[in-house]
């Protein structure tokens, strides 16, 4: 099992920046897909970024490409999401997730159903 705990959310003005963190613990050995998702009120949960734990390739949704950066610390226990040029439409609960069954393959990395571990979420509000 993998436990994920997000932090770093909060209120921010439009154009500002925030950096979210996700600390992973438990059975974290090996390479697998880790992603950031968000869910706004009344909307479906959507993927915004993903990367393979310990890997170099990164993936972004069109809505955040060029503004958000997903990264990981050298110890590979903390996943980050640097969010710049924030817009009101970025307002949502942000979730960290792990798909321990694959390595961010194209058919799976964007879909909620493939991720088997989730954090509790951290709220981002852009005014």
Features:
127 residues; mainly beta; seven-stranded mixed β-sheet; four-stranded antiparallel β-sheet; 11 strands; 48% strand
Description:
This protein has 127 residues and is mainly β. It has no helices and eleven strands. It has strands at residues 2-7, 10-12, 18-26, 33-39, 46-52, 58-60, 68-72, 78-83, 92-99, 117-118, 122-126. The strands form two sheets. Strands 2, 4, 5, 6, 9, 10 and 11 form a seven-stranded mixed β-sheet that branches. Strands 1-3-8-7 form a four-stranded antiparallel β-sheet, with no helix packed on it. It is globular, with a radius of gyration of 13 Å. 33% of the residues are buried. The model has no long low-confidence stretch (mean pLDDT 94).
Summarize the structure.
By secondary structure, this protein is mainly beta. The mean pLDDT is 94.
Topology:
Blueprint: E1 2-7, E2 10-12, E3 18-26, E4 33-39, E5 46-52, E6 58-60, E7 68-72, E8 78-83, E9 92-99, E10 117-118, E11 122-126
In round numbers, the mean pLDDT is 94
Q: What's the gyration radius in Å?
A: 13 Å
DSSP helix fraction: under 10%
Number of strands: 11
Please report which band the strand proportion falls in: under 5%, 5-15%, 15-25%, 25-35%, 35-45% or over 45%: over 45%
**Mind summarizing the main beta sheet?**
7 strands, mixed
Broad structural category = mainly beta
Overall, the morphology is globular
As residue ranges, the low-confidence spans are none
Distance between the termini: 37 Å
Q: Can you write the helix and strand succession as a string?
A: EEEEEEEEEEE
Count the DSSP helices: 0
């Amino acid at each position: 099992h993998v436990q994920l705990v997000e932090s770093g959310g909060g209120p921010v003005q439009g154009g500002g920046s925030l950096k979210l963190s996700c600390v992973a613990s438990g059975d974290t050995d090996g390479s697998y897909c880790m992603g950031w998702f968000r869910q706004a009120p009344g909307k479906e949960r959507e993927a915004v970024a993903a990367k393979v734990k310990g890997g170099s390739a990164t993936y972004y949704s069109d809505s955040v490409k060029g503004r958000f950066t997903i990264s990981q610390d050298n110890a590979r226990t903390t996943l980050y999401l640097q969010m710049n040029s924030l817009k009101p439409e970025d307002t949502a609960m942000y979730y960290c997730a792990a798909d321990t069954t694959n390595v961010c393959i194209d058919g799976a990395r964007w879909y909620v159903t493939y991720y088997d571990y989730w954090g509790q979420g951290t709220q981002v509000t852009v005014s």
